[in-house]
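Ticket #4471: structure output looks truncated?

Reporter: J.K.
Steps to reproduce: submitted the chain below (360 residues) through the standard prediction queue, then opened the result file.
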Amino acid sequence: MRMKIFRKLLICLTAQVFLLTACASSGMTVQPPTGTPGGPTDSFFESDGSLAVSSPGVLSPTDPPATSDGPSVSPFLPSGQTPSSEPTPPPKPSKTQPEDFQPFYPDEKVIAFTFDDGPDWVTPRVLDLIDGTDDRVTFFITGYMMDMNAKYKDYVKRASDMGCDVGLHTYNHKNLFYASTQTDAPEELIQSELGDIDKLYTEITGKKTYLLRPPGGSLNKKRNYGYACILWSVDSEDWKSWSDRRAQLTSSNAQVKAKATEEAANEIATKVLATVKPGDIVLMHDVYETSVIAFEKIYTALKAQGYKFVTVSDLLNIDPEQYTGWYFHETGRSGVNGSMNLAQRTDAQSVAALPPEKIF
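Returned output as attached by the reporter:
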């Protein structure tokens, strides 16, 4: 007799589990039977020993799930999994996640050349080279250069009117973040360096810019400066080519100066042409004549290879105002809010950390 009761109990318990699982999978619930869970075993059975179920509605539809964009979750599966054993789809990325950045990958070869520290007397030569073409470049300007020569404001206005991107490089070329100690510059300095040049740019052009290149590329990646911070993927090191030949380039001997100028320009052009690829952001400076001569050589060579020169906004496919707090290196590398996870250029590749030596 006891054996029969044990078998009946085992069969009924198995049926109960089966029903509960089936209900969870189909969006149904089992109404609690008469009796108290944890109480006497026979409280789950009718007087005749059959499984106790409440009157019609044992398998009643459940209320709509808390979220309507995914399947119901079974209480018998690990949290976050559905009865199909497939993981619950992750939430769509928000604007604060690097995965939300969708770079632009056109079929044609595109590249963004950027010029820091100006405007200066050689800036018009860059503009002259691309004027009348569909090519554009990007400038990151300082204020103190225009303090020295008010005419330089005209170059900023011309660049903006031509459709070039114009971003900020602080007023006095002061670091906003000290990479060696990993500390911010004084808050008053940060506010004045950004606020003053921002105001000056608006006075010159009547426009607002949301692009920033922090001097030295040093920025606190956990801070939102109120701009899209544009770094680079190719450093021309044009400043070094000039610095290494400073004595000859400032010589009163015309022949010595001319030779050093050509050597420096060739060195810069050779380095850049051997390195660049579609999607790169190239760092140069429009305060050295050697840099502009090098750019003229680079421009001619890359145009022969089918390249198109675009602004950083077009290259990255962004509205900078919508990406304040982000920093970018090229079309496929970006980060935001202190994240070191940078979306790689090839979509098939997994997200990986950018090597530290490429950050500053």
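Triage note (M.O.): checked the attachment and the full token line is present. The two ends are 82 Å apart (CA to CA).
Status: closed, working as intended.
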